[in-house]
Amino acid sequence: MKAVFIRQHGDPSIIEVGDMPDPKPADGEVLVRVRAASINRLDLYTRAGIRGTKQAASAFPRILGGDSAGDIVEIGSGVEGRTIGQRVVINPLLTTDPFPKMIGTHVQGSYAEFVVVPAGNVVPIADSLSYVQAASLPTVFLPTWSIIVREGQLKKYETAMVLSASSGVGTAAIQIIKGVIGANCIAVTSTPEKIQKALELGADHSINYKTEDLAERVREITEGRGVDLIVDSTGALFFEAAYASLGRGGRFGTCGVTSGYLSQIHLGQLFSKELKLFGVFMGSTNELGQIAEAAGKGELKGAIHRELSLDQVADAHQEMERSDHFGKFVVTVD
User: Fold this and answer.
1) 110: helix, strand or coil
2) Rounded distance, CA 76 to CA 173, Å?
3) Cα 76 from chain centroid (whole Å)
4) Which of 79, 125, 236, 278 could form a disulfide with 263 if both were Cys (CB 3.0 to 4.6 A apart)?
């Protein structure tokens, strides 16, 4: 089969496109004909071997890619409730015991014509949901859903702030806040163009963190109350100013550290304002089913920056590292 893989860690120039052995499903697994696969920051980290993704020499060549959607073409023994030809989206999280293991990082990935996954990791999708849209969902909508719906328990009358609103997580968060919950949404991003796109996506207010004081603007927008929930995938860059912008009983949910690991926390605010600070890593396949159902109804939609072929994956990795994009890169597999 045709696939995108690496033989070692490094920059985008090490990415190769070529033939790899066709995978076969074992007991409890299904073989999926990949129709679309999206690119995430984790794929860039895996390629580079950073942020906990460094692999032993025996792991190579490694096919990259976690998020994907396609059709089941073969079913291993012991699998029930799945049928040949079923359209599915894949949850790339394999296990969290003792540490998370991800498709494309710890096992062969989905930048390929075929991928083998546990049957419990696939979710049927409606005919109304395209493969491109389905593939854009898991790694950005799962942690965001966990922050907003499961852990943050955002209410319709509350206000949520999305940090790095142009990222995959950011665009997903805006849609869940507005399309599923119906709450007030503040989008934080870096350029007038990205602000305009965030507003078009549904955000009620915007903050340009490069030209405006984040905490001061939050006070203006909320008339001094502060925000009820913060969705963060950036880490250190915004933490202190954003944390200070929480109102009483506010919740701060994080699912990434793209801008750095370390920051300071004001413990006095933590107890005096009765704040909650929590982290999430992805989400359950059941939650992916809820997300796919909402997407099938048109309540959620992946923000697609560009569709591309397997041969263009290296170019997409380079563009993502510049952070000039808004939304997802999705690879379509013919």
Assistant:
1) coil
2) 36
3) 29
4) 236
Do residues 168 and 328 touch, judged by C-beta distance below 8 A?
yes
Question: For 268-289, what is the mean pLDDT?
Answer: 92
Cα–Cα distances in angstroms (integers) from residue 293 to residues 225, 288, 314, in the given order: 34, 8, 32
| Mean pLDDT score across all residues of the chain | 94
Task: Compute φ and ψ for 206, nearest 5 degrees.
Answer: -140, 155
- What does the DSSP 8-state code read for residue 107? B
List of E strands, 255-327: 276-279, 304-308
pLDDT per residue over 43-84, tens digit each? 999 999 998 899 999 999 999 999 999 999 999 999 999 999
pTM of structure: 0.87
Paired sense of beta strands 122-124 and 87-90, if any: antiparallel
Task: Give the 3-state DSSP-derived string for 152-189, with helices as H, strands as E and coil as C.
Answer: CCCCCCCEEEEECCCCHHHHHHHHHHHHHHCCEEEEEE
Residue in 139, 98, 111, 65 with CA at minimum distance from that of residue 288: 139
